[in-house]
Structure formats: C-alpha cells, structure tokens
Specification:
This protein is α+β, with helices and mostly antiparallel strands. It has 35 helices and 37 strands.
Length: 1212
C-alpha cells in the first residue's frame, strides 16, 4: 500500500517481501536480504535492544554502512509501521535524533519498561555531539516468529517482576491493575500497525461487503427491472426508511438502554444507602454458584442407606457478578435457594463482605426489579398514556402505523413484480386497511386474520410467533401470507387455501436464514401469555389440544399422551435467549418436520396492531434475555416449589405399604427421564439404584412371610379369632354368646295368636294387634316402619332407648311356571358399550317445511346411479303404486326395501323410514351397504370423508314418478351448529350434533326420520330471530349427576361425552391472574363466573334475576331465569371450577335438592317473588335445576369455558 502511494520504492518493497517470505533463509551473497536486530546505548558496554523492531536490508549494507542500499525499519504493534532509509548510517542518525528528542518518540515503546530510565540517564550523560552506540545482530530464523517469541519472553519476565512486587508503572501500585495494564500493552504490541490509508481502504472494503450482503436481501426482480420500476421502488424504500428511522429515534429518546437504566437505578439506591461512590458497581464483586438445591436422601444414590435428611446440592458451575450484573440478574427474596447461593458466595473484594450482608443484597436487588421496571417502561414507550397538557413522551400510534403502512406498500409493490395475483393484492390491501373485526366483512370479503404458532413437542406449551400474518378469505379460500422480515423466501405470497399456506410455512420456515428470523420473532412466554399481552380486543385463540378426545379411546389416548409427553417434554420454562430459542425450534423440526408450525385463526381485526406489537415482543424478549423480572422469578419459584411439594408428598406416601410402591415406581420413571434427557453416568446410577429400591419394595410388600401373615390375622381378628390363635399354637377360652335378645323377650305365649301367611310370614304371628316373632321357644314383639324392609324388636318401656333391627332372609322358591306360560317381549342383545338413551322432553319441530323445500330443490346429479343393484328374480312388492319392493337377505346384508328406477331389474336400496316417517312420498336412496353403526357415526361419515355416499332424497310426484334431489346436508353438523350458536365451543358443537342425531328418532340406527328431523331442527335454529334455541339445548341436556349426589362430575370440555354439559366461549377476556391462589382471588373468580353466566343467558333471550348467596366466606349470586318460549323456571347455581367436579354439599342437604331449596327459601329475608315462583315451579315439576360457571385450569391444558350442566331433582 505504501509503495502504491509512493511512500517507499520498489527496492525497499522487494526486501520486505523477501524477508517475510516463508522460504526465506539467510544468504551469504552481498545482494541477499538480511534481517537485523537493533540495540542502542550510551556506551558499548550498556546496550538495550529495540523489542518488536527489526531492520531489513542487504549484506552489502552491513559491509558498507555509508553506502546507498535499501534499508527498512519495521516496528510491530498498533503504533508501528514501515520506515525506509537509504543507508544504515541514515537509519542510525534518525534513531539518534528520535531518542534524543525532547518531544519523545514512539521508539521508546520498543525499550523494555524496566530499562527506559537507565537508557535515558545514559543518553543524558553523553557529551554534546557524541553519537549513540548502535549495534546490529543478524536474525537467522523467521522474522515474525522471532519478533513474537522475543515479545512473549520479555513480557513474561516483566510479569515475574510484578509478582515480586516491583513497581513497573510509576502511578500504579496495585499488582492486579499493573498486570492488566501490562496485558493491554502486550495486546497493543501484537496488533497490526495502524495506517490511515489502510483504515480507509478497509472501511471501503467493509462498505462493499455490507452492500453485497444487503443486495442479497433485495428482491430478485430488481436485476431485470426497468429504470422506472427501480426508481419507484427506490422512492418507496426511502420513504419507509425515513419513517422507520423516525420511530427508532423517538423510541430511544424516550426509552434508555437497559444497562443505563439499571445503572441509574442502582446508583440512586446505593447513594441513598450511603454506599456510593465508594462501591464500584462495575468491578467484579462476588462469585456465586449457579444453583443450590435441597434433595431428599431417600431418593438419591449419593446418600448413605437409611438417611432421610435433606442434602444441599451445589452446582459446580459458578458465575462472577459485579453489583450491576447482579442487579440485572435479579434475586427472588421468597426463594430459599437465593440465600443458599449467597451464603456460598466467594467475595472477590473482602472489604465489602461485612458491609453488604446477604439480607441487604437480597432486599436491595429485589426492590429494584430492573427487568420488571424496564418492561413497564417499554410498554409506556409504545403505548403512552393520553397527555393532559403539552407534549407527551412515547411513540404515537400514527407514527408507528405510518412506518408499517409504508413498509407494506413497498413490499406489496415488490410482490406485484414477483407475480402476486390481483385478487391477492386486493385481499392484502383490504386486510391492512381494517382496524376492527367488523371491517373485515365488506367488499365481497369475509376475512379472518391468523397468527403463527410454534408447536411444542419438547416444550411444555406452544410458543407464539409474532410479526407473521395469514390473511384468509373464508368465502374464496384464498390465503395471503405476510412475513415482513423473511430473508430466504418472498414476503407476500398468495395460496389457494389456509392449509396450503401452512404447509408452505413449514417448508420455508426451516430454511437456515428464515429459521434465525423466526427465532427472533418468538414472543416471550408461552403462547397463552403472549396472546394475552396484545392490546385491545381479545384474539379468541384457544390452546392446542394435545389429544383428540374421541369417544371410546379417551382414557387410552390420555395414557399414551401422558407417557409420550413424560419422555419428550424437556423444557418447562420458555427460553428467551436467541441461541436457546433457535435450538428449541430445531428440536421441534426434527420431531415434527411437516407440522412444527401451525396457523391459528383469531377474532382480531387490526392487522397493524398485531404487527406493531411484534416490535414490543422483540424488545421484551431481548430484555428478558439480559435481565430477569420479579414475575419471571415468581413463576420459576412456584414451579420449582410445586415440584418439591410433589416430591415431599411422594416421600410421605413411600411409608404407606402399597402406595409406597407407586411412589417408588414414579421416582424410577423420573430418574429414567432425567437419564433419557442427559445421558450422564450419574443419572444412570440413579436409575439403577431406584430400580433396585422399587424391586425391594414390591418384594417386601407382596412376598409371603410371618410379618404378612400376622398383619392379615390382626386385620381379620374380629372374624377369625379362634383360627388365628390356633395357628399360633395357643389355647383359646370358649367365648360366651352375647345375649342381645334377652331384654326384648316377651313373657306371654302364643295362645290366641294367628300365624301370618305369604312371603316372609313364616315364624311371624299377630296377637291383639301386635306382631310376634318366634325363635325356638322364645317369643319377641316386633314392628315394622313404613318403607322399611327390616323388623325392629319392640323395646320394653323404661329399658333404654336402644333398638335392635333384624333383617330376616328367607330361602326363595323358584317356580318355572311351565303350566302357565306368559308371552313377554323378546330379550334384547346385551350391548354394554351402547349409549344409554335418557328421557328428554325435547321434540323436533315439524318437517313439513323441509319436505316442501325438498320438492323445490334442484335435481340430483348422476353419481347416485352407480348405486344400483341388479336382481333378476321377481321381488315382493311393498307398495305397488310406488314401485317399492322387498329385497331378501343376502350375504352380509339383511332384508331391506328397494326402489325400482330406470331399467328393469335395477333397484336402489332405501334408507329405513324410521318410527315417524312423515310421508310415503319421500324416500332416501342410499348406497348398498349395511348399517352396523350408531346413527351419528354414519352421519359423521356421510358429511365428512364419505360425502359422496350421503343418501339422496327422492320425492314422488303426482304423475307417479320419483325425482331424486340434492342431499339435505352440505357441511358437517358441528359447523352448522356453530353457525346457529357462534359462541358455543368447538367440542360442544360436536356433542350437540351427536345428541341431536340421537333424539331425532327412537332407534339407534340411521333412518329417514333422523335426516328429516335433523334438517328441520337445524333450519329452525338457523332461521333469523328464532326464539327458544337455547331452551332446546337445555331440554336436550342429560342430567350430570345422580339424584342427591354430593358432587357432580362435569368432566372437561370435549371429554364429557353424552351431552351432559354445554360450553360457551367466555364473553369477556379472563386475566391469567385468576389461575393463582392469592388472597382475594376467590371473590374475583366468583364475580367473573356470575358475569359470564348472566351475559350468556341474556344473550340467548333469558330474563335473569340474581339471588344472593354466601358460601365459604365468599359472597356469590345464583340466578332465577325465565324464557318467553317456555313455562319452565330455571334455577342456576354458579360455581368457578378448576377441576372436574362441582361440589354440591351443604350443611342441610345436597344443593339443588328439594330440602335445600326449601331451607334456602325459608331463610330468605325478605321473602321475594322469585322464591315464590321457584317454589311453585318445584311443586308443579316445572323447575329446571342447573349448575353453571367458568371452568379453567392449567392442569388439563384446556382454555376457559362457560359451562352449563343440569342436575336431576332429588327429594330426600
């Protein structure tokens, strides 16, 4: 570079290149290149070498120092460089001038630090005009290697001097600081010499490299675009970048950097406590173990046998913190391991160990809560409060939305050049302009926004990916994916369906560049927590169900799911660090390559708000990666203490003989899971240890032996006393019989008594209106209470209050009755798995309108004609005028009715009419297959995977001809039910469809009556302003509990088959704090449940009046409800439920029983008209007793739902 700038000649450059060449060896010719080590001094006896400096010249220059030969001085280090000379004497003169200069010279850095004072004294002692002594020594090995080794040896020697207490730096006495300064000096000596031209050249190279990297991010179409297209795209880009810079600049004006924020907060607190500025918050202060845990020795192979104490386990990994780093790390004052860690700290500055106590550190650091407070500042910066006067801090929504809108316009223009269709352009622009859910249904669109979910296979819950939008038009099926930050794929892409878009995202998201972008877009926390943080309206996203919950396989599937999750879920805390998130995404791709991403439809309508909040998520995630908030520490503490509590319970259960085996086996599974995840030898030892321990527990519990025999005898002693003592070889005194009946004996005889006849009359007499019982020679007076099967011995007056109840068994006499046979209905086949049909007062509406609409419907296609069955023999005619015949039974087919259409001998099988066929002029043609399954199974198949096999209705015209029509149904039942009841949950829609199919006809097999009644009911529900739809659902509900039960097992939404509950989506957003068990939460839960139940009922036309209730110290409200479509009265008991069971126990009688209602009515003050109506409805059997509320529990991984369940009436 210097040669190109004409700073050195080609001859000098040639010598330098030759010396630096790997093949260079010292030659003997005058023209050969040589390298010289320089030493200087005042006298020849005291010479000091120039470290890090060499001379490159020729052998001729050494022989003729005054001759003109190329000489180059090369000095390593940041302050070094190349300096050319024309002769060795010229170099010596320049060296002398530099060292004698009063301004100092950079060459003094080449003199050893401990020798500089001596050389300065020697130079000062020289007489004026006397030259310095300069000596040259040949270097025979590689130049750079020689320089490097000499520097290392020199600085090692200086380090030893520091260790011995020598003061190398005049103003520094601290050995540690001296060592740090020495290391910095060595670091600078090993750097490449600085050069302005080189710095400028490298800057230009870096600029070109960055331009090349950015060019790769530009759209491909720019390479073939016209000048006008490039100019327009450039304008759009500039406008977007200007606004994006304005947003960024305004944000960081109002929001300080996290470290600066932590520094200010910490300095303010330390100054208040009197520790600052004496305490350096940046200086390393203490070294802490990463974790300290308490482990019960009973489950560890590291403890002695029989040891049941808790052992503290300190992790070998340790981290050094300054006070500022500790403030960012944060401490949990309620976690016991916080104090355990600090008690095992190594203080790097012992001076502060006594002044900064453990208690003060915990209290002070926890009170700062740097991460939590900074998170509040982030939210205030993006969503500032409305200013009362003057300018406000924070970002305005208009500024953020403008930047996002201009980015969308720029990327849309690029997508159009890449081939985005016009329909997709319209859909994208329409969705981006919407600001609410109502705006998404206009201009021929019915748009639903969807977000992206990272499906958690090895994660405890799913994660939410922000900043990616799927815009789905439900009318056309078109779906536009908008991924603004995508690197390896197009930003805006249109797909034919939502499913196709999801598949493409799974494929494109796995690309390396896109994977890194996705990792940065994963929102902090689990999916449910992230979605709750979006401002404005609730997005209405339900958690993913980990199992389908289909009937018949629920228990087995839950067991399989639990086992699979037990050995696959390894991450119970959501990761926030970039590399950790990326590693977890790769885990999900490896286990679920085709479905690790899922599209999640939402009820939101503001796409801009979703994209804007993605920036908040990104900043929050980066903040949480650097600093833990108090809330995050609390969640970790609750999880860890919960696991410890479970371990304690298992430890207590281990002392119970049988339950202890279960605890041992579970501990063995836990150890196996730890070994499965870690693969460490320590965990393998634990697995072996616990396996042996479990085997011993099983052996000692179930193996026969003296101890087991004695325990069994002790438990059976009241029954087998004689046998037990006999086995032990002991003599037993004869036991005296108990004379329990002596005081009930009658002194009179049986003179004049009449013996009773009939069943149970043997041995019983009546005398003077008194029943007598004869046992041997003794007579006992007895009586029998109404509705009681046993006899009571009548007590003698004045002999106590006790009674003895006798239950007398009589041997039965079975008579075959062969001489008088009686006709009875044939016995049904025992079907233990068949659904029980419960009584219901619901009846389907008339299907006359369905038949009328059917006759006016279009004619069916021709696919059904392939269902014809050819039969050559004549068939018996069932209805001669309608051409319906009876087909005899065939292999695998029972007898059935068929319809003759078209050619002779071609018949079409008919669906059975059922018990309430409305007309002989409507039949259903079906494919010829047997109907073995329940009606709903066939309906689900016909409306799903076998939609082409749905029976075709046919009507008989006045001309005597049959006309096939289009099928009655064009979508699954749960979808139609969802359109009639949009607020019903997905699972309830499915169960409503099953119950409707069951009640549509009396038989269990599908019939024409089923189809007509189902269609009539759905049309009735879908008609606008239809009253009584909710009343129909309540009538169809099965009672959830047995009469008089103390609790009702309502199950879980989706896992309670048989239609024993109705579930609705909560009308209001529920705060996740309701899941905690803090003070005051029960009252908030009760209020939330009452509000949700009232709003659902009033939405469906019920008149709701509250009835105050107080139970367990929590005030509540039950409801008295009426509906104009029915004369029934509904009493609704409200409960918040976090498990499967609703408790109905009370001090009087089971809640909702007659006795409980009467007690509540009588205790009401003042006596209200509602209670009068409830009591009258109860007497007239018009009272419907229900329990309703909110069910929400993290335990079952289910979203919250508003449930309704019916309770059977009970009179104790």
């Amino acid at each position: 570079m210097q040669q190109r700038l004409n700073l050195i000649t080609p001859a000098h450059l040639q010598r330098v290149n030759a010396a630096l060449s790997e093949s260079w060896v010292l030659g003997q010719q005058p023209t050969d290149t040589c390298v010289l080590q320089v030493a200087v001094g005042g006298e020849a006896a005291e010479l000091y070498p120039l470290l890090g400096a060499v001379l490159v010249t020729t052998n001729a220059a050494r022989a003729q120092p005054a001759g003109r030969h190329p000489v180059v001085l090369y000095v390593v280090g940041q302050q070094g460089g190349l300096v050319p000379f024309d002769s060795l004497n010229a170099f010596a003169e320049g060296l002398q001038a530099s060292l004698k200069s009063r301004d100092g010279s950079m060459l003094w850095r080449c003199i050893g630090r401990h020798q500089r004072a001596q050389l300065r004294a020697a130079i000062s002692a020289l007489p004026k005009g006397t030259p310095l002594q300069v000596s040259y020594t040949l270097i025979e090995r590689n130049v750079l290697k020689d320089l490097f080794l000499n520097l290392l040896q020199h600085y090692l020697a200086l380090q030893k001097r520091i260790d011995q207490g020598e003061k190398l730096f005049s103003e520094v006495s601290d050995p540690q600081l001296s060592a740090m300064l020495l290391a910095q000096e060595l670091f600078e000596c090993l750097q490449i010499p600085a050069n302005d031209a080189r710095t400028l050249a490298l800057a230009n190279v870096n600029l070109l490299q960055e331009a090349a990297r950015q060019a790769k991010k530009l759209p491909v179409w720019l390479g073939i675009a016209s000048t006008g297209q490039r100019k327009h795209y450039k304008q759009l880009s500039r406008r977007y970048l200007a606004n994006a810079w304005a947003v960024e600049n305004k944000l960081w004006q109002d929001l300080p950097d996290l470290e600066a924020f932590a520094r200010d907060a910490l300095i303010a607190r330390l100054s208040e406590d009197g520790f600052y500025p004496q305490l350096d918050i940046d200086k390393p202060l203490l070294d802490l173990p990463d974790d300290v845990s308490a482990q019960l020795c009973g489950w560890s192979s590291q403890c002695a046998v029989g040891d049941r104490d808790y052992k503290k386990v300190v992790s070998p990994q340790r981290t050094t913190f300054s006070l500022l780093q500790l403030a960012l790390h944060n401490l949990d004052p309620k976690a016991p391991w916080t104090r355990w860690r600090l008690n095992r700290a190594r203080w790097l500055d012992p001076h502060w160990k006594d002044r900064l106590s453990v208690g003060y550190l915990i209290k002070m650091i926890a009170s700062l809560d740097v991460g939590g407070e900074y998170d509040k500042h982030v939210l205030q910066a993006f969503y500032p409060p409305v200013p009362t006067s003057g300018a406000s801090s924070g970002l305005s929504q208009a500024l953020v939305y403008r930047a996002l809108q201009q980015r969308a316009e720029m990327q849309l223009y690029s997508a159009v050049q890449e081939g985005l269709s016009e329909e997709a352009q319209r859909l994208f622009s329409f969705a981006m302009a919407a600001r609410s859910a109502g705006d998404l249904q206009a201009d021929g669109f019915d748009v639903q926004l969807a977000v992206l979910r990272l499906v958690g296979v090895t994660l405890e819950q799913d994660r939410h990916i922000a900043g990616v939008l799927l815009i789905h038009d439900k009318l056309s099926g078109l779906c536009v994916v908008y991924w603004p930050t995508a690197l390896a794929s197009r930003v805006i892409v249109g797909y034919a369906s939502l499913v196709e878009a999801e598949r493409a995202l799974n494929r494109l998201g796995a690309l390396p560049d896109n994977l890194k972008v996705l990792a940065r877009q994963v929102a902090p926390g689990w999916e449910s927590q992230a979605l709750d943080r979006y401002p404005g309206e609730d997005l209405g996203v339900s958690p993913r169900r980990r199992f389908s919950g289909r009937l018949g396989i629920v228990a087995m599937e839950r067991v399989v799911t639990w086992v699979a999750e037990f050995f696959t879920v390894r991450h119970k805390v959501p990761a926030v660090a970039q590399d950790s998130v990326e590693a977890q995404i790769q885990e999900q791709i490896a286990l679920l390559p085709q479905a690790w991403l899922a599209a999640v439809p939402t009820s939101g309508g503001n796409a801009m708000a979703l994209l804007a909040h993605a920036q908040v998520f990104d900043l929050q995630r980066r903040t949480q990666a650097q600093s833990q908030s108090a809330q995050a520490l609390q969640e970790y503490r609750e999880q860890r203490l919960g696991e410890q509590f479970d371990a304690t319970i298992r430890g207590v259960l281990s002392f119970v003989p049988v339950l202890g085996i279960g605890a041992s086996l579970y501990e063995m599974l836990l150890a196996a899971r730890r070994y499965h995840f870690s693969g460490s030898a320590h965990d393998a030892v634990d697995v072996a240890f616990l396996t042996v321990l479990s085997f011993v527990d099983v052996l000692l519990t179930f193996a026969p032996g003296p101890k087991g025999a004695s325990a069994a005898r002790a438990s059976l002693a009241p029954v087998h006393r004689h046998q037990g003592f006999a086995r032990a070889g002991l003599k037993v005194a004869p036991s005296r019989p108990l004379n329990l009946l002596e005081r009930f004996r009658s002194s009179g005889g049986l003179e004049g008594a009449v013996e009773l006849q009939g069943p149970g009359g043997k041995g019983r007499y009546v005398k003077n209106g008194q029943q007598l019982l004869v046992e041997g020679d003794e007579v006992y007076p007895v009586y029998q209470r109404p509705n009681e099967g046993g006899l009571r011995l009548k007590k003698t007056p004045g002999e106590g209050e006790g009674e003895l109840i006798l239950k007398i068994e009589h041997p039965r006499e079975w008579l075959l009755g062969g001489d008088a046979p009686v006709a009875v209905p044939p016995a049904r086949v025992f079907q233990p798995w068949a659904p029980t049909r419960s009584a219901s007062d619901w009846a389907p509406p008339s299907h006359a309108r369905v038949e009328a609409a059917l006759r006016a419907s279009p004619v069916a296609g021709s696919a059904w004609q392939n269902w014809a069955v050819w039969h050559s023999d004549p068939l018996p005619e069932v209805a001669p005028s309608r051409r319906i015949y009876r087909m005899p039974a065939g292999p695998g087919y029972p007898p059935n009715e068929v319809l003759q259409l078209g050619q002779q001998h071609y018949y079409y099988r008919l669906l059975p009419q059922g018990t309430n066929a409305s007309s002989e002029r409507v039949v259903f043609i079906m494919k010829n297959h047997d109907l073995h399954f329940r009606a709903y199974v066939d309906m689900e198949r016909w409306l799903g995977i076998a939609d082409a096999e749905q029976p075709v209705p046919a009507t008989l015209g006045a001309n005597g001809l049959w006309t096939p029509h289009q099928p009655l149904f064009n979508e699954p039942l749960d979808i139609t039910v969802g359109r009639a009841f949009p607020d019903l949950t997905v699972n309830s829609r499915r169960f409503v469809g099953e119950r409707l199919t069951e009640l549509a006809d009396t038989g269990s097999r599908i019939t024409a009556t089923h189809l007509l009644n189902i269609r009539a009911t759905l049309d009735h529900w879908l008609a606008p302003q239809t009253p009584g739809r909710m009343v129909d659902l309540f009538k169809m509900l099965r009672p959830v509990a047995e009469p008089g039960a103390g609790s009702a097992n309502i199950g879980i939404d989706g896992l309670a088959p048989g239609f024993v509950r109705l579930d609705f989506s909560p009308p209001d957003h529920l705060n996740s704090s309701l899941l905690r068990r803090d003070v005051g939460v029960p009252t908030l839960r009760s209020q939330a449940a009452q509000s949700a139940v009232r709003r659902v009922l009033e939405h469906h036309g019920f008149t709701v009046k509250g009835i105050a209730r107080r139970q367990g110290g929590v005030s509540g409200m039950d409801f008295y409800c009426t509906h104009p479509h029915t004369d029934r009265v509904y009493f609704v008991l409200t409960h918040w439920v976090d498990n499967r069971t609703v408790s109905l126990r009370s001090r009087v009688a089971p809640q909702l029983s007659d006795a409980w209602l009467q007690d509540r009515i009588s205790a009401a003050t003042p006596y209200s008209l509602e209670f009068i109506a409830i009591d009258n409805a109860r007497r007239e059997q018009r009272l419907v007793r229900m329990v309703a509320g909110i069910q929400w529990s993290v335990r079952y991984d289910e979203p919250a739902s508003v449930y309704f369940a019916k309770i059977a009436p009970f009179t104790p």
